[in-house]
TrEMBL record:
Taxonomy, superkingdom: Bacteria
Protein name stated in the entry: Aminotransferase
UniProt family annotation: Belongs to the class-III pyridoxal-phosphate-dependent aminotransferase family.
Organism from which the protein derives: Hoeflea olei
GO molecular function, one term: adenosylmethionine-8-amino-7-oxononanoate transaminase activity
Keyword annotations from UniProtKB, A to Z: Aminotransferase, Pyridoxal phosphate, Transferase
Coiled-coil segments: none
Cofactor dependence: pyridoxal 5'-phosphate
């Protein structure tokens, strides 16, 4: 790779040749982009030498922190032994076998097989096809409809974006594809408190929307319900305490599959190995990616329950589905080394018992800020809802997203990477963050809130 290229030259070249994901290119000036050139632990550096705390763990994925040489070495060793072979047509290889065994061990009791891909999006494409194939094998080909939720995020491929409930994404390219129905999300601060229901009542109501949809469409037409235990990209929506127990009750009575999209919640984020463990859910399938490799190499997959695996075994026949890089050896090596670190350093228990509760306490203190309407956190994922008038929590900023962006920019300039969703700020730090780094993070967040609040009032936005 080239060395000693100036920061400016990098930006000019990036501007000319690199089409960025989820970016408004009309609004992205040459100098507005940041070139991230190095990372270590919870810290990242840009090409101008600025150090920032990576409060988003990359994109919710760098669970074991940046720069773990143990993973680098494991990948190097695997690449020199067997850099690639496929897993189609009756072949396999040692790293994919070892990884599958490791995942089966940490997954819930009743889930023991793994299908691999390269991302969370294609994991959900696999889900889309597998749930329908399952019902075909079961002799119920009419069960094809998949239920999801508004404001869900399930990826950016055609099936992923369709399963997701993002209006903006659906607006581009005539999505969703047919056969998907979206129901209410359990978003108390955004949609619940305005109804006059209590938080618990709203949680029950949102859960029973699933029951209503099943009755309306017909259980004999529905293949599956897919949901994130905590919605991530939708704004870190932690459901009311009543929501998941009620959904679990409904799922127990109905003959439809349940898919837990664990792409963010999986691998320790919520203080258990999976979000389904945190909420006592029994999924038939779980989509995984992100924390599986901590982002060291791209990898995703679907963890399959015995119920589905048994049907695939018993009924036989080929499932015409797979990716060239399904179970890529180097990605497997990265995942194995990543999971080994998580186990050895007890990162899941650490989130549940130590750094999670510590972080949460400090984070919730930000709730006293004049611009914060709600601070929430579960495990190591959280959000701050920004409001114009703390005395009246039903009020929102006029131009949705503008204040969130202002606050996000102040956060960056205060040395902390947070992300804005509408007018909220969200956080999802590496699971290895220390108490001292947590204090630094929260101090930077408070500074960003102060600066943003001053800005917002100066501009007459509140
Ligand atoms: C990020 C994400 C995806 C998509 O994963 P990619 O690796 O970006 O394709 C799917 N589901 C959830 C819940 C996610 O957060």
């Amino acid at each position: 790779m080239r060395v000693n290229v100036s920061s400016h030259d990098l930006k000019v070249s990036d501007h000319k040749h690199h089409l960025h994901p989820f970016t408004d290119h009309g609004a992205l000036g040459v100098d507005e982009r940041r070139v991230i050139s190095r990372a270590d632990g919870v810290w990242i550096w840009d090409s101008e030498g600025n150090r920032m705390l990576d409060g988003m763990a990359g994109l919710w994925c760098v669970n074991v922190g940046h720069g773990r040489q143990e993973i680098v070495e494991a990948v190097r060793a695997q690449m020199s032994e067997l850099s690639y072979y496929n897993t189609f047509f009756k072949t396999t290889h040692p790293p994919v076998i070892e990884l599958s065994e490791m995942i089966a061990e940490i997954a819930p009791e009743h889930m023991n097989m793994v299908f691999y891909g390269g991302s969370g999006s294609d994991a959900n494409d696999t889900v889309f096809r597998l749930v329908r194939y399952y019902w075909d094998l079961m002799g119920k080909p009419d069960k094809k409809m998949i239920l999801s939720r508004h404001n869900a995020y399930h990826g950016s491929t055609v099936a992923g974006a369709s399963l997701g409930g993002m209006g903006g994404m659906h607006g581009q390219g005539n999505l969703p594809v047919p056969g998907i129905h979206h129901i209410a999300q359990p978003y108390w601060f955004g949609e619940g408190m305005q109804t006059g229901m209590s938080e618990d009542e709203f949680g029950l109501w949102a859960a029973r929307e699933l029951e209503r949809a099943i009755d309306e469409i017909g259980e004999d037409k529905i293949a599956a319900f897919i949901a994130e235990p905590i919605q991530g990209a939708g704004g870190v929506i932690i459901p009311p305490a009543t929501y998941w127990p009620e959904v679990a009750r409904i799922l127990k009575q109905r003959d439809i599959l349940f898919v837990s999209d664990e792409v963010i919640c999986g691998f320790g984020r919520t203080g258990e190995w999976f979000g389904a463990d945190t909420y006592g859910l029994k999924p038939d399938l779980m989509s995984i990616a992100k924390g599986l490799t901590s982002g060291y190499l791209p990898m995703g997959g679907v963890i399959v329950s015995d119920k589905i695996a048994d049907v695939l075994h018993e009924k036989g026949g080929e499932f015409y589905h797979g990716y060239t890089y399904s179970g890529h050896p180097a990605a497997c090596a990265a995942a194995i080394a990543n999971l080994a670190i998580m186990k050895r350093e007890n990162l899941v228990e650490r989130v549940r018992d130590q750094i999670g509760p510590y972080f949460r306490k400090k984070w919730l203190e930000l709730g006293d800020h004049p611009m914060v309407g709600e601070a929430r956190m579960k495990g190591l994922v959280g959000a701050l809802e920004l409001v114009p008038d703390k005395a009246d929590l039903s009020k929102r900023f006029g131009d949705v997203g503008k204040v969130g962006t202002i606050a996000r920019d102040h956060s960056f300039n205060s040395g902390l990477v947070m992300r804005a969703v509408r007018d909220s700020l969200i956080i999802s730090p590496p699971l290895v963050i220390t108490e001292e780094e947590t204090d630094q993070l929260v101090a930077s967040a408070r500074q960003a809130l102060d600066l943003a609040w001053a800005d917002v009032r100066k501009q007459g936005l509140a």
